[in-house]
Design brief:
Helices cover 2% and strands 32% of the residues. It is built from one helix and five strands; from the N terminus they run E-E-E-E-E-H. The N and C termini lie far apart (189 Å).
Length: 219
């Protein structure tokens, strides 16, 4: 703060801490869908749901800044499918019973960032969050989905079991080598083996035989 009466200039506001004391919650959700029209290109689905969630703020620390209590949610919806397009509409109503914080149990004290002035007058115990809190929440939701032409995924198949390895056995000895067979030589024709025939004798002529002359014998 700058140029504020009765305060040094500038005046720095200290950090402000608001106690909330958040706590764990428990919740239950139930829902269902039923298809009333199941045509080839037109489908109609009806949906219903219910939810419960406990308060995340202890009653003594509920304030206008952090309003919370036990909540009950009732929801319904419809889905319309035409070919590849789908329209969804949802309506939900959140109901929270009134939360009453008695001033005697309220735990949030007055926060005064300017320390030079005394806090303003408040309840006898100096707290400011006592009172009754009432909250409801209607929720409307709309959705649109369009499926483009995408190839369908292949159906999942179970992996084939791997064949069990066969037990190792002794290998049979290799077969003996086959004997080499020399090719047979071609035999000569019978006409080539037979001797030539004798010359034919002409009729009327006899073969002339030469006479040997005796050698003179000498003693």
């Amino acid at each position: 703060l700058v140029n504020v009466t009765a305060l040094p200039s500038p005046y720095y506001i200290p950090k402000i801490s608001i106690q909330r004391h958040f706590q764990d919650t428990n919740s239950v959700h139930l829902g269902g869908e039923y298809r009333v029209v199941d045509g080839d290109s037109t489908k109609v689905d009806l949906r219903l749901g219910f939810g419960y969630e406990s308060s995340a703020i202890p009653t003594a620390y509920v304030s206008p800044l952090t309003i919370d209590g036990d909540k009950f949610t009732f929801a319904g919806g419809v889905g319309l499918t035409f070919g590849r397009a789908r329209f969804d509409a949802t309506f939900a109503y959140v109901y929270m019973p009134d939360v009453y914080v008695p001033p005697s149990k309220a735990a949030l004290e007055v926060i005064n960032p300017v320390q030079g002035y005394p806090p303003p007058p408040g309840p006898p115990n100096g707290t400011v969050n006592g009172g009754t809190y009432h909250v409801t929440a209607p929720i409307i939701g709309l959705g649109f989905v369009y499926a483009f032409d995408v190839a369908p995924a292949a159906p999942a198949t179970k992996p084939e079991p791997k064949p069990e390895p066969k037990p190792e056995t002794e290998k049979p000895p290799p077969p003996p080598p086959e004997p080499k067979v020399e090719p047979e030589k071609p035999k000569p024709d019978a006409a080539e083996e037979a001797p030539p025939p004798p010359p034919e004798e002409k009729p009327g002529k006899k073969p002339h035989k030469k006479k040997k002359k005796p050698h003179p014998h000498t003693d």
